[in-house]
Amino acid sequence: MSIPIPGRILPLAPGTFRALRHADFRYLWLGQVVSLFGTWMQSAAQGWLVLQLSNSPFALGLVGFCTFAPTMLFALVAGVAADRFSRRHGLMWTQGSQMALAVLLTALTAAGVVRVWHVAILAFLNGTAAAFDIPIRQSLLQDLVGREDLSNAIALNSMAFNAARLAGPAAAGFLIAGFGEAACFGLNALSFAAVLAAVWRMRPPGRRTSHPATWTREILDGLGFALRSVRARTLLLLIVVSSLFGAPYSILMPVFARDVLGAGPRGLGLLMGSAGLGAVLGALHLAGRRSYRGAGTIVAIAMASFGASLVAFSFSRALALSMALLVGVGASMISQLATSNTLLQLAAPEALRGRIISLYMLSFVGMAPFGSLLSGWAARQFGAPVTVRVGGAVCLVAALTFALRLSALRRAAGVPPRAPAAPA
Tens of pLDDT along 81-107? Predict the structure, then answer.
């Protein structure tokens, strides 16, 4: 099951790339396309390397935990930093740190001395840089494109992320087979130069204002807004469910490629690339939308489709069928996340933008360590297919519950039933 992509967007709907008319965003977006390609190559190669070193699904879950645990630790602080300090300078630091870590992983792997604990430590440090990078980069978007093009910029960022997710792992599969994992890590290190160059030339309008309140007070202000807003509470809760029970399917992709489907490293690249293709199609559909009327319905359908697609994927034993189902998984997941991200940013006051994005990040990326550990343990006990099947079923039930309560939630949020372009 997957979200239908209307034929009217192929060819693309007018205005699909409208945020690229802003020069600073255009250069940043192009730099991210290159950098994210390298990031996804490293992600696929890192999973394959860990599996080859350990032969353990639990080790995959452990490295996944180390990658995402910093978000749980630092997300709220990172949100305050995004609201307090220069976002341009912040990006220079986070992207530069990730480049240095990729260089170190390349050296360890090429020298033949890399161990799982090396990968885990570097994953934790890389995750720490990412924990600050995401709210800084996301909150910078409105500075670059304005409120009127914010939803389009978020969709285009999602498309860039998932286009790299499509091409990166596929390229990694062939590079691993021909040159080894170190080649993927080295190319990732080089790819950061593109986004660093874009940030260096950037001159975003406006300046960060001073904040006399303490960091703790500012964190509590962000949490208080999220708790008071019924829309924010509900969207964040659905994202938590997706992160704990649905998203960890990607951690188990090496197991599906090698043990369930017998497809090897090239099959791993094809599987991860298929999910990326679906996500690109989903992001293009969202970018072509001019209105977010009925966005609550989009979230409900997307999450239901995500869960159903995962359940179907868990039963597949054919590579081609698994790839087709993962297209649906990718389209559904990005539709839920990008729509939720846009609604949260549009609902947030300007002064709280970075902190609300950090809560979005905490709900998805911050829950991922626990989802990774849970899926790694469950895969060892019950097998990868059963683990993915149960996680998909939980997402499907959550989506149906949300859909049944959607009208009541709209009334509680004060959204008029027929108000045009009202984000529900």
Answer: 888 888 888 899 999 999 999 999 999
Between helix 23-54 and helix 57-84 the angle, nearest 10°, is: 150
- Provide the whole-model pTM: 0.77
Helix-then-strand count for the chain, H and E: 16, 0
**Cα–Cα nearest to 334, from 305, 368, 294, 367:** 305
Identify whether the C-beta of residue 123 lies closer than 8 Å to the C-beta of residue 70.
no
What are 247's two structure tokens? 């998203």
Listed in sequence order, the DSSP H helices in 288-318 are: 295-315
Helix (H) or strand (E) holding 92: helix 87-110
8 Å CB contact between 290 and 393: no
- pLDDT tens digits, residue range 140-172? 888 888 777 888 888 888 888 877 877 788 788
Closest by Cα among 293, 296, 241, 292 to 407: 296
CA 195 to chain centre: 18
Sign of CA dihedral 89, 90, 91, 92: positive
Contact 300, 399 (CB under 8 A): yes
Distance CA 69, CA 369 (A): 5
Tokens of 254: 């090496």
Please tell me the distance from the alpha carbon of residue 337 to that of residue 330, in angstroms, as a whole number: 11
pLDDT of 238 > 60? The answer is yes
Higher pLDDT, 78 or 61: 78
